[in-house]
Amino acid sequence: MTSYEFYVCKYGGKAIQPDEWQTAYADADALIRRYERLYRVEYSTDSARDTAVCAIADAQRRFAGQRHDWQRKRKLRRQHGSSH
Questions:
Q1: How far apart are CA 12 and CA 79, in angstroms?
Q2: Taking the complete model, does pTM exceed 0.85, yes or no?
């Protein structure tokens, strides 16, 4: 398992909080395991897979945050009767 310490100290991650890491890690790891089943995946260094997990976890977190912001803004526009 990629540790939260690796995420913060080695990868330099900041988007995911410690209490969110387990879920973020599990989602990212599941996606990487899927890729490993479907494609030939090789890692050039011992930490390459951990880095990939961190990158995917960060991307998923940012996408979820952007989606949440978009939905919140859309809801506010509807409440105020604006179409834009």
A1: 39
A2: no
> Cβ(63)–Cβ(24) under 8 Å?
no
Q: Which amino acid is at 70?
A: W
**Residue whose pair of structure tokens reads 């050039």 in the numeric block:** 44
Among candidates 8, 26, 30, which has minimal Cα distance to 17?
8
Residue type, 29: D
**Per-residue pLDDT of the chain in tens (84 residues, 90 and over written 9):** 999 999 999 999 999 999 999 999 999 999 999 999 999 999 999 999 999 999 999 999 988 765 555 666 666 677 777 555
For residues 49, 34, 62, 75, the Cα torsion angle rounded to the nearest 10 degrees is: -170
C-alpha–C-alpha distance, residues 18 and 26, integer Å: 13
